[in-house]
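thought: fold this chain, then report.
action: predict
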Amino acid sequence: MLEVLNLTKKYRNTLANDNLNFQVNAGEIAVLIGPNGAGKSTAIKCIAGLLRFNGNIAVCGYPNKSVEAKRNFGYIPELPAPIETLTVYEHMEFIARAYKVEDWKDKAKNLLERMELDDMRKKLGKELSKGMQQKLSICCALLPEPKVILMDEPLIGLDPHAIKELKTMLTELRAKGCTILVSTHMLDSVREFWDKALIMMNGKIAAVRTRAEIESTGEDLEQLFFSITEGAQTGGAAK
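observation:
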């Protein structure tokens, strides 16, 4: 489970995250949605332990920057950054040894095949296209079989097959009890698989809806999203 309490992050005079509070349960896919500049990537980076912040973040009950927490989560950044001088397969071996993954070769082979990278295993990180780098980033994050997965715009740059395969992977991981948080500004990309929607605007969580709530009330998530994001720009955001 992922729990975020009073998360606040300020860059000099800019309040990027303003007292965020939410949780994502085991076996749940939450989408953090909002326009560019809403504070989504900052929140993801804080959760991943890459930024200093005020507040408390727990991963499977452990403080997010602790070793125990890091053992339990995988992170797919918006911009992949492979090691230029390691091959695709060496990336997988590096992650496997760092996380002490058992039977990692079979798991790595399966992930590389699903992301259509198996024939690229000898390619160096610097030789990969951005799309291939993103696929490799996904494989590296999922190899240790994390209990909590953070994804920042994971579908950008992927080809149609990889998009379809990643969505399938996410539903499989949810069925296994994984906690998944996906940050995106593209509603269409996550429409079919989200369980909880966290709508961000101006550094705050402006609304939270579960799929069950949307379906039971007949509320339209897209309309709610635009009423908040466009209303805020004109000074009349919905609550």
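thought: worth noting. Residues 3 and 23 are 4 Å apart (CA to CA).
final: tokens above.
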